[in-house]
Design a protein that fits this description.
Largest sheet: 2 strands, antiparallel
Strand content: under 5%
CATH architecture of the largest domain: Up-down Bundle
Number of strands: 2
CATH superfamily of the largest domain: Na+/H+ antiporter like domain
CATH topology of the largest domain: Na+/H+ antiporter like fold
CATH class of the largest domain: Mainly Alpha
Number of helices: 15
Distance between the termini: 39 Å
Strand order of the largest sheet: 1-2
Structural class: mainly alpha
Shape: globular
Radius of gyration: 21 Å
Number of domains: 2
Length: about 400
């Protein structure tokens, strides 16, 4: 009997270990991300501003591809970031918090509500304006920042809320990826696209035959990236799809699967190098009075309101309705206020919001600057609202 009990406890701990690693990994990386954001803003407003912009504009040729440093970060490094997201999404749906249907209903529905509400708020504020195209910007959640703030301000929050926010953010990432593919790609060149899809189909076939050779998938991924880029589909989409094709099981040991190995080796690079590099390249906005006053332009207000109000409204509203209707059960030691706090923290858009903004306003620098200011302001406000809610919950229970 003791052996059975010991095995149950041991298995339970082993099942929770990946989540513990994921949660802490994302939480701590948010500090580095914040640091590089501050550095970017400092550089953009210092005597080094011209040099900062010059470096980002420098062109670098790799093979037959010639891009600026900024585009290598946004189109190249971010493809690896999205590839890791693809790995995470597949793992969560096969083995993680999104494995069972009952466990996925609440975070999936809440994530959808949390995407629809901010998009609607933004679109209503920008209706009839050329800036209306940016409706996808406030829909995103930065998983690193949101989990980082949660770990700092909600130490006494039930584990179910951390799991809920993690699952919600992953579904949110998937939604953002779909939106980028459908609405923020340029005129599609179908011949090039067909070649890119053929490369990804070859990766699917490798998966079918349980090929565990990473270089085979990397080679096909590079081909897909090249043709997606020339097809007018943002090449990061190729990264996500490639991540979904990676084998998740090894016939000998599940922990030796290619998915497990690639996520283990690439996730730290994504969190500690790629995301900070993205922040350094994209967060440098000039904080002159004229620029700050643009925050009150429709696109600025739309993003700020979408992140700080739309996100918690959509997430909490959806969760409240599902719980009240009895479609899902309230997790143990969890209250409606916890969902409200989690909804507020999901309004920290940052990385993915910056990325969508760079696509929506690629040809309009003024709108892009205002959008970045709105993202930073909205994310700060959302984190403050979430912090206050969780501190009030702690005060109420003391």
């Amino acid at each position: 009997m003791k052996n059975i009990k010991h095995n149950v406890i041991k298995n339970s701990i082993s099942l929770l270990r990946p989540f513990n690693h994921f949660f802490k990994h994302k939480s701590f990386s948010s500090i580095v991300l914040l640091l590089f954001t501050i550095i970017a803003i400092f550089l953009a407003n210092s005597n080094l501003a011209d040099e900062y912009q010059t470096i980002l504009s420098l062109h670098l040729s790799i093979g037959i591809i010639d891009l600026s440093i900024l585009h290598w970060v946004n189109d190249g490094l971010m493809t690896i970031f999205f590839f890791v997201i693809g790995l995470e999404i597949k793992r969560e749906f096969l083995f993680g918090e999104l494995k069972s249907l009952s466990a996925t209903i609440l975070p999936i529905a809440a994530a959808i509500g949390g995407m629809i509400a901010p998009a609607c708020i933004y679109y209503l504020i920008n209706y009839g304006e050329s800036t209306a195209v940016g409706w996808g910007i406030p829909m995103a959640t930065d998983i690193a920042f949101s989990l980082g703030v949660l770990s700092l301000v909600a130490g006494n929050a039930p584990r179910s809320i951390a799991i809920f926010l993690t699952a919600l953010a992953i579904v949110d990432d998937l939604g953002a990826i779909i939106i980028i593919a459908l609405f923020y790609s340029t005129a599609i060149q179908f011949t090039a696209l067909s070649y890119g899809l053929a490369a990804l189909l070859a990766a699917v076939l490798l998966n079918k035959y349980n090929c565990q050779n990473a270089f085979s998938y990397i080679g096909l991924g590079l081909i897909a990236w090249f043709y997606f880029y020339h097809a007018g589909i943002h090449p990061t989409i190729a990264g996500v799809i490639l991540g979904l094709t990676i084998p998740a099981q090894d016939t000998r040991d599940i922990n030796k699967s290619l998915l497990h190995k690639l996520e283990y080796y690439l996730a730290p690079w994504s969190a500690w190098f790629i995301m900070p590099a993205f922040a350094l390249a994209n967060a440098g906005i000039q904080l002159h009075f004229a620029e700050i006053s643009n925050l009150f332009a429709p696109e600025g207000i739309g993003i700020l309101a979408g992140l700080a109000l739309g996100k918690p409204l959509g997430i909490f509203g959806t969760a409240f309705l599902l719980l009240k209707a009895g479609f899902v059960k309230m997790p143990e030691k969890t209250t409606y206020y916890h969902f409200l706090g989690a909804g507020a923290l999901s309004g920290i858009g940052f990385t993915m919001s910056f990325f969508i903004a760079s696509l929506a306003f690629a040809d309009i620098p003024q709108y892009l600057t205002t959008a970045k200011l709105g993202i930073i302001s909205g994310s700060i406000l959302a984190s403050l609202i979430g912090t206050i809610i969780f501190k009030l919950i702690d005060y109420k229970h003391t």
